[in-house]
């Protein structure tokens, strides 16, 4: 590949390049490969999932990490895989059954699980195929699945071992229950959303006489399970009633008024109903005071027989009926709107119900203490550091983990119950004996995915070792969104330390959430959702990746808009066009050693210094995984330094007659391009690979850019060259500005004279300056013209330039245009000044808004000054 198409077409190169990388084995690594071990395990997406923009960010970052590590000479492996996603996957197949008029109970457990496996075989893992479109350099030979044979064996071993250590137990405890999924949920599977509900105030009558006590609740139906009224012990309103009993209006029971410091005197009436079976706070009060615990709900969230005349009613229907019945008895005081947080199932969105249930739990305290110690001791660090405190707070306040789920798809709990005695046996092998039946529940999906960093490396049981485990555990870095630090990261840290006595990763790198350009969360209801596959199809994978990287700093949310992806596509085009131009001038020159320093022109020394600066910024940013800084440094070097300045500056020699000068320019250009494409490759792998092959003549395969080493620095910082070339750039920039402001066509050449204290520097560069600025001749004089009538004065950093305007500009037309622009600028300045003169605006508006107006004022003042100078020059000519 030695010639490039006139325009860059991502669709024409991306799929073929990916296939070439994969077939050449560039994604694969073996434990005995050379280099420092470096391993990343992919956060396993749900087997039901499709690529969304959050996945695109996660995997673009991990791909850049892996490509950079491989090029840096590390023995780097990126392990792919999917999560069996118990509830989510079961819901998918249950919906399929529903379309056939069936339920899972109609087909039975064994047939249902078989159907899920069939679905997984046919449709599961789509997201892994989609990751290829993104360019993900995953080691596909090591693909894992949380429910495959090897991972299943490890899961069973961990369960049994923890049970034998009394760290897994079965108990009747308050859990989160999803009526739709008919399953328990852990705390992290509950999404709390603020909703506008109601606060119901009603009165319980005293059991021993007239009067009563008013309480408030957001869930009126739960009063059917009340077993106490609680008040704060120091609330003077209720001092006289503590110890008295109230009578339930619908059920044949009475219960006491108790004092508990948990009660908030400011909420509602200051007296709260206590329902130990249906609220975690009430349950804690109940345990402290030995209250009765009455479960009023069925698995389907209907009222059971304990609810008396309301039995059989769905919970929200019962809520209305209870309020109506209270009203009939004259006990309903008020119903008012009330915004409060309500838990919803993260899988199906159903409002969860706290309830008592027999479930399996992990006693997490001993595990959490080891994880806390590891983080505080620096064995695992969080980037950015600000996430460390909430991470430790979570671990320090962690409740025992409910790990059993009442579904059929998942790792079935390896426990057997005796049908007559009720005894329980937990076993590494199935028990096939009379009277013993396996527990019907399956494990929480997070139970298996917590083993991911070592189960993917071959671990099956304590003491196990594999070459992969010995080489790549602990993994180098765990990269993920900060939103699952508690869901997943904390559990991997705990279980890895417990079973392998080593952290599963040295670094936890947290990226932010992808939001729209206004910082708003992406949502279908907002109409701002971005489909990464559509963007890849439209703009190419590199454009999407670079747009994401450009705004991705550690832990900060990542804004994204379509126009930014379009901008990144233009950047890829700029690279393409710059390389295409270079190939047309290099005459077969390949990247290689630089010419001797004494052969380098000023522009050569300058571009090599700018490259060294960009390279230093990139290497420093890799240390903190600051992708925004990496992309910013390379973007500005490629677009501003190389394309806008060096390519233009080198044309004088590339198209000149001096063969030595041309050869020097060609060698520097080829080597700088080679270095730039290599530095950019981890971020935008496709376009850089295509361009690098054209530049070097590589045929790909094992000699692809991806397989090249991270380059040694070329060039060093040269402050003298940067300052000297900077003077030239100032002069050229101002001459270009003059041309633009005066609408002088690019084809028109005009003469200029220059007075400057940098004459000794600039005069030898006059031909270069003339070429860059597009002027006819550039002469150097000691002072300005004696008569500046009809002469434009152009100020630059180290002097002034003078351009005769006669015959160059239609003075009358320009004066008319400039005066109109001046009127507009003065109007804009007046508007801004009026706004800043408004004390209410300055004092009440956000400071960034006020500062933006001040910046506008300064800009308009500058524009007005420039326009006035130009008008004065033209008026002198007109006279």
Descriptors:
29 strands, alpha/beta, four-stranded mixed sheet, 17% strand, 879 residues, four-stranded antiparallel sheet, single chain
DSSP helical segment count: 28
- Low-confidence sequence ranges: none
Query: Radius of gyration over alpha carbons?
Result: 36 Å
Strand content: 15-25%
If strands are numbered along the chain, what order do they take across the biggest sheet? 6-5-14-16
Structural class: alpha/beta
Calculate the mean pLDDT score and round it.
Answer: 93
> Between the first and last Cα atoms, what is the distance in angstroms?
63 Å
- Please count the beta strands (DSSP E, at least 2 residues each): 29
Helix content: 40-55%
What overall form do the CA principal axes indicate? globular
Largest sheet, in brief, is:
4 strands, antiparallel
Structure description:
- With 879 residues, the chain is an alpha/beta fold.
- The chain contains 28 helices and 29 strands.
- Strand 1, helix 2 and strand 2 form a beta-alpha-beta unit.
- The chain is globular.
- The mean pLDDT is 93.
SSE order and pairing:
Elements: H1 10-23, E1 37-41, H2 53-71, E2 75-79, E3 81-82, H3 86-99, H4 104-107, H5 109-123, H6 126-134, E4 144-145, H7 149-164, E5 168-178, E6 183-185, E7 190-205, E8 212-217, E9 228-231, E10 245-247, E11 254-259, E12 271-274, H8 280-289, H9 315-328, E13 332-345, E14 353-362, H10 365-376, E15 381-383, H11 388-396, E16 401-402, E17 404-405, E18 415-418, E19 424-426, E20 436-438, E21 442-443, H12 445-449, H13 452-455, H14 467-472, E22 475-481, H15 485-500, E23 505-511, E24 514-516, H16 532-539, H17 541-549, E25 558-560, H18 562-586, H19 602-624, H20 627-654, H21 659-680, H22 685-696, H23 719-741, E26 752-756, H24 759-762, H25 766-773, E27 778-780, E28 791-796, E29 799-804, H26 811-836, H27 839-844, H28 847-878
Parallel strand pairs: 1-2, 3-4, 9-11, 15-23, 22-23, 24-25, 26-27
Antiparallel strand pairs: 5-6, 5-14, 7-8, 7-13, 9-12, 10-11, 14-16, 17-21, 18-19, 18-20, 26-29, 28-29
């Amino acid at each position: 590949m030695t010639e490039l198409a006139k325009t860059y077409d991502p669709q024409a190169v991306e799929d073929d390049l990916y296939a070439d990388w994969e077939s050449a084995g560039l994604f694969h690594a073996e434990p005995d490969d050379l280099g420092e071990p470096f391993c990343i395990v992919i956060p396993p997406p749900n087997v039901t999932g499709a690529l969304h923009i959050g996945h695109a960010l996660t995997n673009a970052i991990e791909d850049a990490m892996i490509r950079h590590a491989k090029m840096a000479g590390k023995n780097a492996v990126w392990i792919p895989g999917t999560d069996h996603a118990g509830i989510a996957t079961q819901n998918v197949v249950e919906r399929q059954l529903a379309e056939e008029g069936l339920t899972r109970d109609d087909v039975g457990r064994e047939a249902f699980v078989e159907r899920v496996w069939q679905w997984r075989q046919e449709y599961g893992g789509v997201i892994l195929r989609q990751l290829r479109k993104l360019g993900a350099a995953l080691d596909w030979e090591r693909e894992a699945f949380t429910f495959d044979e090897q991972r299943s064996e490890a899961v069973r071993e961990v369960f049994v071992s923890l049970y034998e250590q009394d760290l897994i137990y079965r108990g009747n405890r308050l859990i989160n229950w999803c009526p739709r999924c008919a399953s328990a949920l852990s705390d992290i599977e509950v999404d709390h959303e603020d909703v506008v509900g109601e606060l119901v105030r009603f009165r319980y009558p005293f059991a021993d006489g007239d009067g009563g006590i008013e309480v408030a609740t957001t869930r009126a139906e739960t009063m059917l399970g009340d077993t106490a009224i609680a008040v704060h012990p120091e609330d003077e309103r209720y001092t006289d009633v503590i110890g008295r009993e109230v009578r339930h209006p619908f059920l044949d029971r009475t219960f006491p008024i108790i004092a508990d410091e948990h009660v908030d005197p400011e909420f509602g009436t200051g007296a709260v109903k206590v329902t130990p079976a249906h609220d975690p706070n009430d349950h804690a009060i109940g345990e402290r005071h030995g209250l009765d615990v009455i479960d009023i709900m069925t698995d389907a969230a209907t009222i059971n027989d304990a609810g008396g005349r309301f039995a059989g009613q769905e919970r929200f229907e019962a809520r209305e009926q209870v309020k109506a019945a209270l009203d009939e008895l004259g006990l309903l005081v008020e119903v008012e709107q009330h915004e409060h947080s309500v838990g919803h199932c993260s899988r199906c969105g159903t409002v969860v119900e706290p309830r008592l249930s027999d479930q399996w739990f992990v006693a997490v305290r001993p595990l959490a203490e080891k994880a806390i110690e590891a983080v505080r001791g620096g064995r695992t660090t969080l980037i950015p550091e600000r996430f460390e405190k909430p991470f430790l707070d979570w671990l320090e306040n962690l409740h025992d983990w409910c790990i059993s789920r009442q579904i059929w798809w998942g790792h079935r709990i390896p426990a057997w119950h005796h049908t007559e005695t009720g005894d329980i046996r937990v076993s590494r092998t199935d028990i096939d004996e009379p009277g013993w039946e396996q527990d019907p529940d399956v494990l929480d999906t997070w139970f298996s995915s917590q083993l991911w960093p070592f189960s993917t490396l071959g671990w099956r049981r304590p003491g196990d070792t594999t070459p992969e485990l010995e080489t790549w555990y602990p993994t180098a870095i765990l990269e993920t969104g900060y939103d699952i630090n508690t869901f997943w990261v904390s559990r991997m840290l705990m279980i890895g330390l417990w079973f392998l006595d080593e952290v599963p990763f040295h670094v936890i790198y947290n990226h932010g959430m992808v939001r729209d350009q206004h910082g708003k969360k992406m949502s279908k209801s907002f109409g701002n959702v971005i489909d990464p596959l559509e963007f890849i199809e439209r703009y190419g994978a590199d454009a999407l990746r670079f747009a994401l990287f450009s705004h991705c700093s550690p832990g900060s949310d990542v804004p994204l808009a379509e126009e930014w992806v379009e901008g990144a596509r233009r950047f890829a085009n700029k690279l393409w066009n710059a390389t295409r131009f270079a190939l047309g001038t290099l005459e077969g020159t390949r990247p290689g050693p630089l010419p001797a320093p004494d052969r380098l022109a000023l522009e050569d020394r300058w571009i090599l210094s700018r490259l060294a600066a960009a390279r230093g910024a990139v290497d420093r940013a890799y240390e903190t995984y600051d992708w925004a800084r990496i992309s910013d440094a390379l973007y500005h070097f490629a677009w501003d330094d190389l394309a806008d300045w060096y390519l233009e500056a080198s044309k004088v020699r590339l198209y000149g007659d001096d063969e030595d000068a041309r050869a020097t320019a060609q060698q520097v250009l080829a080597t700088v391009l080679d270095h730039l494409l290599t530095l950019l490759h981890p971020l935008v792998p496709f376009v850089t690979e295509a361009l690098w092959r054209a530049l070097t003549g590589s045929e790909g395969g094992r000699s692809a850019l991806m397989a090249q080493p991270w380059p040694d620095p070329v060039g060093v910082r040269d402050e003298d060259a940067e300052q000297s070339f900077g003077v030239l750039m100032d002069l050229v920039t101002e001459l270009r500005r003059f041309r633009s402001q005066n609408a002088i066509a690019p084809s028109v050449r005009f003469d200029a004279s220059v007075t400057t204290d940098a004459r000794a520097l600039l005069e030898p560069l006059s031909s270069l300056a003339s070429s860059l600025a597009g002027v006819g001749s550039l002469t150097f004089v000691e002072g300005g013209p004696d008569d500046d009538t009809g002469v434009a004065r152009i100020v630059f950093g180290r002097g002034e330039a003078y351009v005769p305007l006669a015959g160059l500009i239609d003075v009358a037309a320009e004066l008319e245009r400039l005066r109109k622009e001046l009127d507009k600028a003065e109007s804009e300045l007046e508007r801004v000044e009026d706004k800043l003169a408004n004390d209410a605006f300055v004092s009440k508006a956000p400071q960034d808004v006020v500062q933006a107006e001040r910046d506008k004022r300064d800009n308009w003042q500058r524009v007005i000054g420039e326009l006035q100078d130009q008008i004065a020059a033209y008026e002198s000519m007109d006279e």
